[in-house]
Design brief:
binds S-adenosyl-L-homocysteine; 42% helix; alpha/beta
Length: 248
């Protein structure tokens, strides 16, 4: 079981697989006023940076599930490196339908809401693992500017304009689902640059080391087009944030 290969190549050197910087992750942890021993579930945990740093900085106990064997391996190594391997557990698997055995204080899905079939479905899924009074974290894109055309939305790698909402509408959408928004931390364009531009050097180095690979043409094509596509579309139109929710 694995994710499409382009991600495990282009994001192989990423610790954070979204437009958050290490500072954004730390701000979010501080904003949530996490208490030592709080259990955190993370669906689509990537390379584990959120759980590992929060275990180190705030003493949380974490479980992460991710479909990428490579990212899961990186998460385990990161836990060793930060000395928190006794506090966090990383499981390779499909997080769709995953419910924790023991209820958690924080249930998160940060940049992978397709796991629950969209934001609403993911909130429902996370709620099944959450203790009363716990916090749900959803990391999701929103339109900084609504694209003027569907073509521009596709340039942002969305299927259509309707894939995402502007920030006020996204915030408003949580109420009808039965949730208060109790905190949020938003990425900025520098964070987007760290996420997107870091892929380019990784792809370039991969190409130099793997010129005979059957996938080299695909990676070459991406490296050639991505900088301009990103600057034209994603960087201008797409925002990203993590939203903390509590049931009303
Ligand atoms: N939350 C992490 C990773 C976000 S990127 C971070 O912020 O760094 C999206 C992640 O979802 C990738 O690590 C990918 O491997 C994982 N993923 C995709 N589909 C999944 C699924 N069905 N179950 C579990 N993980 C999945």
């Amino acid at each position: 079981m694995d994710i499409p290969r382009i991600f495990t190549i282009s994001e192989s050197a990423h610790r954070i697989h979204n437009p958050f910087t290490p500072e954004n992750l730390a701000s979010l942890g501080a904003a949530l006023r996490l208490e030592t021993g709080t259990r955190v579930l993370d669906l689509g945990s990537g390379s584990g940076e959120m759980l590992c740093t929060w275990a180190r900085d705030y003493g949380v106990i974490g479980t992460g599930i991710d479909m990428s064997p490579l990212f899961t391996e990186h998460a385990k190594l990161r836990a060793e490196e930060l000395g928190v391997a006794d506090k966090v557990k990383f499981i390779h698997g499909d997080a769709a339908g995953y419910v924790a055995d023991e209820k958690v204080g924080v249930a998160a899905c940060v940049g992978a809401t397709w796991i629950g079939g969209g934001v609403a479905g993911t909130i429902e899924l996370l709620a099944r693992s959450l203790r009363t009074g716990g916090i749900i974290l959803i990391g999701e894109p929103y339109w900084r500017q609504v694209p003027p055309t569907e073509e521009v939305a596709r340039g942002c790698l969305a299927n259509s304009i309707s894939d995402f909402l502007p920030l006020p509408e996204l915030l408003a959408s949580f109420g009808p689902l039965g949730y208060d928004v109790v905190e949020m931390v938003l990425a900025n364009q520098d964070g987007w640059d760290r996420y997107e531009a870091a892929k380019w050097l990784t792809m370039r180095r991969w190409l130099e080391a793997n010129s005979d690979d059957e996938f080299a043409n695909e990676v070459r094509a991406q490296l050639t087009t991505e900088p301009v596509r990103y600057a034209t579309y994603t960087r201008e139109y797409l925002g990203w944030g993590v939203f903390a929710l509590m049931q009303r």
